[in-house]
Amino acid sequence: MTETPVEWTATARQDLRSIVRYIARDSRENAQGVLARLEIRSAALAGQRERGRVVPELRAIGVLHYQELIERPWRIVYRVQADRVLVLAVLDGRRSLSALLMERLVRS
Questions:
Q1: Coil, helix or strand for 54?
Q2: Which residues 6+ apart lie within 8 Å of 15 measured at CB?
Q3: Distance (Å, whole) CA 5 – CA 106
Q4: Cis peptide before 73, with omega less than 30 degrees from 0?
Q5: Cα→Cα distances 18→2, 33, 55, Å
Q6: pTM for this entry
Q7: Which end of the chain is less packed: N or C, by CB atoms within 10 Å?
Q8: Which helix H or strand E contains 68, and what residues bound it?
């Protein structure tokens, strides 16, 4: 099986930086561990593009092209494209997806 490149959007990279910075305020060691877990989990998509599930909140409204991997408590949201897997966001799974998306729209 041919591996597919996994690329991160600027937004997803910012999500990752924010998560690591937040955790590092209490423990640099824990922050590095979380970073490694999220990077390893997303890198697995190179060999298994369809590994995750369709984002349930989006499936409910008929949007089926966004998938997610869970690395508790985070959700790695991505989209499979013909030539790559594009990581779009890393979200806190303890928060409402609607609230997170609204927060992003307000920041824009």
A1: strand
A2: 89, 90, 91
A3: 31
A4: yes
A5: 32, 14, 22
A6: 0.90
A7: C
A8: strand 67-71
How does strand 67-71 pair with strand 74-80? antiparallel
DSSP symbol at 19: H
- Cβ atoms within 10 Å, residue 83: 8
Structure tokens that stand for 28 in this block: 């640099």
- Residue 58 tokens, joined: 């989006």
DSSP 31: H
80 CB-near residues (< 8 Å, 6+ apart): 4, 49, 50, 65, 67
Structural domains for the chain = 6-107 (3.30.2310.20)
- pLDDT single digits (tens) 27-83: 999 999 999 999 999 999 999 988 899 999 999 989 999 999 999 999 999 999 999
Q: Which of 74, 69, 79 is nearest to 7 (CA)?
A: 79
